[in-house]
Structures are given as C-alpha cells and as structure tokens.
C-alpha cells in the first residue's frame, strides 16, 4: 500500500514538473529571458538561412522607445517570413530582465515570432573586415559622434557578413522591398545609409569599409554614413538625375528613387507630426524615414491627435500603438497586450 502511494505521488510530481516546465516556456521562466536565446541561435545560424531585416542599437539602452518599437514591429509585420534581427550593445549572453512591466516595449517585441534580439559585439563583428584595425585602435571615449559612427560601421559589417536589409530605427515599413542589392536615394545623386540591402560579401560594402577607414573623420556628422555611401556610389556608377519615378540601375545594384523611402524630405520632417486634410497613400514608397535625428524638439506620437504619424502607427505597428502610445492626459491604462500578430 505504501509503495502504491509513493508511486502515485511520484507520478503526480512528474506531471507537476512537466506542467511547470511548459508554463515557464510560455511565461519566460517567470522572469524575462532574452528572445535570441530561446532558440540558442547566434547571428550566423539565424541570419544565414533567409533574407533578414537588421536594426542596430549602439547605446547601452535596453528599453526601445515607441518609435524604435514601431520600426521593428512594422518590419516584422511587413516581412512575416523573414527574421528581424535587432542587434543591441546593451545585451550580453547572460542578460535577463527582471520583469515585463519594467521593459514593456522589449517585452512587446519579444512576443513577435520573427523578432530576435542579438548582442552587438563590435570587436567580434569587425573581425576579418577592414574595420578591425580601426576599431582596435580607436579611443571611443573621445569620439564626438561615437554612437552614430559605430552604428555606421556596424551596419556595413553586418550586411557584408550576413546579407539582408539594414534599416534605421526610425523607419516604418509599409510594403516589402522587391530589390536585393540596393541603396536608397535621399535626394537626387545623394545616397542615404538609413536603408540599404545587399547579398552577403558584396564587394560594394567591402569598398565602403575600406573607404571608412582610409577617410575616417568622426568630427563631421554623416561623413562615415550617407556621405560615405555617396562617395562610393560615385566611384561605382555614373550618377544622373532621376527621371520621374524610375529607379537607377548600376552594374548589379539599384539606386532607388527618393520617393521609395523619403517622400517627405528632411526640411519638411515636421509634416509627419501635423494633421493632414487627407493622409497620403505613399503608393510609391516601401518604407518611411521619419528623420528622428532632426526631432530636437522632442515631438511625440499622441493618441487621438489625428496626425499623420499617429495614423501610420495605428496602421503599421498596431501593437506599439495600442500598448505604448499615450494620450494627451498621460499613459494609456490597461495591461500590456501580447496577443498574436
């Protein structure tokens, strides 16, 4: 009788352990485990399978602001079958976050199946590239624009190594980009580096990394970024002005019309925060760059404002809009929603 009771207790204990194991998988171990390690995939394994979308955070910040959350969510929504990789400097392989309530945007994004957070280890990333000698000799503490410069370098190395599409964290995706090797025109004969895409090991990016080191000048903002892309593009291609809405072709890559990502130019960036009589369709665009660097006034997306940017959030990053965007009188009440896509 005693043995039967012991056996019954053992069965109950095993069932309880199995239940708790499944529960911890769903609730992230009762504390927040970082998404990239749920599958134990490093960047090589994750990004080598499919054409990926890449975002980068070069500060130590762990909680993405709403605009960053919208950029990542909109990419995941636009490219549901492709991994969206968010490289973050603040992560490391043993990082745990104490609670989902402390990091609501991080928690929101981690619940999206094709979003993966990856530690940004620059020294390892730059190995076997022209950037390695530069990085190991630079004193980042005295660099004037280090967050931007290190991001400029990291995006070149990541896309060169793994391929895919890089996007700034203030770019809202609205439809898939049909090109594989491309640069985005910010204006006629001037390239952005806020969005670009290439196959792995593309020689254009290797040339960009060499030029980055040879002509390094961190005092001038953009010298290692859009200015670099434009310098290299002029070496590779004979640039001319765009004709109507046609893209330009050069060798095995495309130079995409400003309407594809910059239908609202940087001098007019405030128009995103204005109410329009009728919101534009952006039918000729793949994504929208919101020029957050220009937003020194701290303009925010406000629930109920009916501004263009609010309507873009509502349509293209509905989770971020629902859970993170505040009304004019303060935070939106209610629990953080982590429902299905």
From TrEMBL:
Organism of this sequence: Galeopterus variegatus
Keywords for this protein: Glycosyltransferase, Golgi apparatus, Membrane, Transferase
All residue ranges annotated as the Alpha 1,4-glycosyltransferase domain in the record: 198-322
Gene3D superfamilies the record matches: 3.90.550.20
Name of the protein in question: Alpha-1,4-N-acetylglucosaminyltransferase
Transmembrane feature ranges: none
Top-level taxonomic group: Eukaryota
Membrane topology qualifier: Single-pass type II membrane protein
